[in-house]
Amino acid sequence: MTIQGLAEAIEVNAKTVERWITQGKVPYRRHQYAVAAKLGVAVTTLWDDERAVDTSTDLSKAEIVTVYPHRHMVPSGLWREMYDRAKTRVDVLVYAGLWLSEDPQFHELLKSKVSANAQVRLLLGDPACDAVRQRGIDEGHRIMDGKIRNALMNYRPLLASHPDIGIRLHDATLYNSLFRADDEMLVNTHVYGIGAYLAPVLHLRRLPGGGLFDTYANSIEQTWGRARPVTDDDFTGA
Asked: How far apart are CA 32 and CA 28, in angstroms?
């Protein structure tokens, strides 16, 4: 982004932006947050300002809508309501997420979103990778690969009828399952020795300059970038 482009985007003089860069001038806080939001980074990445640190911490706390001690305590309709509010982005990052793949209303919701030109991306674990095998052991079973293949089979008719729905397989070690709908997200933590349905869930809503939401969102982007497309062999287990 050019100096002029940034200045126009946040409605300040280009000379002002130039002084921030060349003379180390610290902007007013409102301009700090405007710049950070435009560039998609945390405000403290750009300026070491104690006021900004304190405010950024407060904003990160404010991004937490609520915390559920267990996933099964999340209101049953919240998942669909959150995704239904999405206009441009629907992301799911899980190992299997079998319960979601079994929900016909979720399938219909994905169809409507991709038909409205929203970006829809499903990230499931690669059934043959070490991370999936280890997660099954950590949860006290060895069937995670089977759960993923079941989820793939559940999604197969949906993907055949709506090829614009993106789906990839990853080999990442997940510390959370992430469910993003525009600037809302449910973060289902992973805890050793128990299934994800018993682990806590954070409901987040993004605020410019907060940083907490963007930390998890960046994880989705990085995992998607290194994941591989699904092949016919993945459905058959060959």
From this structure: 6
126, 129, 132, 136: CA torsion to nearest 10:
130
Extended strands (E) in the chain:
64-68, 89-93, 119-125, 166-170, 176-181, 184-189, 201-205, 228-229
The superfamily in CATH containing domain 64-236 is Endonuclease Chain A (3.30.870.10)
Over residues 8-66, the pLDDT tens digits come to: 988 899 999 999 989 888 888 778 878 887 887 777 778 776 655 555 566 667 788 99
Q: b/e string for 116-136 if b means 16 or more Cβ within 10 A?
A: eebebbbbbbbbebebbeebb
Q: Where in the chain is the domain with CATH 3.30.870.10?
A: 64-236
Q: Does pTM surpass 0.85?
A: no
* Residue 4, amino acid: Q
Ramachandran region of residue 237, left (φ > 0), alpha (ψ -120 to 50) or beta? left
Dihedral over Cα of 19, 21, 25, 29: its sign: positive
